[in-house]
Amino acid sequence: MRYRNVCDRVYAVGGPDITGGDDCCVYLVDCGADLALIDAGLGRSVDKILRNVQSAGYEPYCIKYIIATHCHIDHIGGIAPLVNLYGPKVIAHELDRRGIEEVHDDLTAADLYGIEYTPTRVDIPLKGEHEVIRIGDLDFHMIHTPGHTPGSISPFIETKDGRVLFGQDIHGPFSPKWGSDLAMWRKSMARLLSLNIDVLCEGHAGVYRGEKARRYIESYLRRYGQSHST
């Protein structure tokens, strides 16, 4: 399956039913003169991702930024090949930086996939709870949402179709090996619910809109033992 037009400015160009079962959902954002990728998949499907970018009507060399939502291999394994090809700048939170810039199979969970990770420099490390980075003509609101990993982030943008949130890996899983913290995750999910989003682009489960986006987040809060109101 090729790319999907998610909404204004946003395309799904990678993912389990697009490029490969081991890939996270990879989203392309049209920022005007520049393009941004939200995550880059495991690394085995980079060629497919780039073909999907072209099929959507864009040139891969216009990918100027890759936003790494966290340091797991199925999200960052494709970054190094893309950096080698086109030199985009990598954005990630400082707390997940070590898992991106060094080889740590425990932090990246690379051992679960049987793949070697190629470290990549983080060009723009995020440190705050909410930072805004301008890419092209779009403001990316980088929300720090620890819990799945210490440095997980959930960017959102404003489009003609409303507020679009890239809420990667809301569903978990959680492991002390890579620094998961359920209490922090619950607070992060409550913060996401307060954003009143219109479109949720999740890391593996695909796209949810309107009330379905809220219900998706709430369902996982219930699953892990606490509603968003507590």
Structure explained in plain terms:
This protein has 230 residues and is an alpha/beta fold. Helix content is 24%, strand content 27%. It contains seven helices and 13 strands. The radius of gyration is 16 Å and the shape is globular. The termini are far apart.
Q: Give the strand tally.
A: 13
Query: Low-confidence stretches at least 5 residues in length (pLDDT < 50)?
Result: none
Q: What is the CA-atom radius of gyration, in angstroms?
A: 16 Å
Tell me the helix content: 10-25%
State the end-to-end CA separation.
41 Å
Largest sheet: 7 strands, mixed
Number of helices: 7
Structural classification? alpha/beta
**Strand order of the biggest β-sheet:** 1-2-3-4-5-6-7
The amount of beta strand, in percent, is: 25-35%
Average of per-residue pLDDT values:
95
The H-and-E topology, N to C, reads as EEEEHEHHEHHEEEEEHEEH
State the oligomer.
single chain
The shape is: globular
In short:
Helix content is 24%, strand content 27%. It has helices at residues 46-55, 73-76, 79-86, 97-101, 105-108, 182-193, 211-223, and strands at 4-7, 10-14, 26-30, 35-38, 63-67, 89-93, 124-126, 130-135, 138-144, 153-159, 162-165, 199-201, 207-209.
Write the layout of secondary structure elements.
Elements: E1 4-7, E2 10-14, E3 26-30, E4 35-38, H1 46-55, E5 63-67, H2 73-76, H3 79-86, E6 89-93, H4 97-101, H5 105-108, E7 124-126, E8 130-135, E9 138-144, E10 153-159, E11 162-165, H6 182-193, E12 199-201, E13 207-209, H7 211-223
Helix pairs in contact: 6-7
